[in-house]
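Two proteins, back to back. First:
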Amino acid sequence: MEILLVIAALGAAIILHELGHGVVAHWLGDETARRAGRLTLNPLRHIDQMGSIILPLFLAVGQWLTLGRVAFLFGWAKPVPVDPFALHIGAYRNPRRLMALVALAGPAVNFLLALAGGYALRAAMASPVAAEALIYFIDINLLLGLFNLIPLPPMDGGRIAVGLLPLPLASLLAQAERLGIALVLLALFVLPLALAQFGIRFDPFGDLIRVVLPVAEQAVLTLTGTPIGSR
């Protein structure tokens, strides 16, 4: 049951995250996502076979068998196509700045979903099963939103940084997007292990899980008036 709850929460979080990108791009005049059929709640239009099914299921089952619980999941949906040069607000056209708004939409959706989950949790405290599902939903949305704000391309935080940094620095950072998700995996998972061999502590993802996520969860429970002991 726990594995199913976590996978369901992750699926909803990543699909709505990508839909958020597409909707904001549409609001800003880009029809690329609409023409690709991505402005829909139909999960089949967003699922990436590896990132949405195989990897999350592998991680969930592996942790359940070894740890007896699911401590962490990672996954992604198919990226929503966006044409930065089609974005505009009236006569204002700035592909770099407006693409940052589109990038911000995904994490923003996850944070709004976490808040919605907090309000639902407050109303569902009498049902242990519903409360457990909602806690997973809150934590996964918070983790996905925070993780995507890491300022490395192709994460949303990297694209936001490209939109906000001075042009010379933005150009250098944008070039790193060619490395894809490999850059993120190297920086967050391989580099910490390598530096640990020299006694250097560098664990941004671990700190995100252990330090930032509990603070964010506490903020959601406080803002929604949910009893703090619900976690």
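And the second protein:
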Amino acid sequence: MRNKPILWPTDFSETAAHALSYAIEMANLYDVDLRILHVVEQPYGYENYQIMAITPQELADSMELAAAQKMNDLLAKLKMTLKVDTVIRHGQAIEQIIEEAEQADVGMIVIASHGRTGIDHFLHSNVAEAVANGSKCPVLVVK
């Protein structure tokens, strides 16, 4: 873990941004690279396209372009001496985060928890919890 990059998955939310400071601190502590991942979840189901004048692929391409722009904006704000790699993947967030961690051989995942409780917790998948349960490397969940 101490010589492998830190993976910080982001959905560009304020909660995820809060976890970034922890990811940077861990990367600086271990003097390792930081890997930033954003997953573009592919829209599915024909009902999503009834009023749209674009194809699902065009929508996915547009979402990836928007994510790349957000990633560039984020990197422009960061003034670090760390080496930072950025990755945009397509698919379900949980699967893609775990797959990226394994393929990139990261030492730790630093991920934000959106802190859902009660019925909201049962109605929405908890990405941080699922990543922590499915990952082979240590996971730091930041509230």
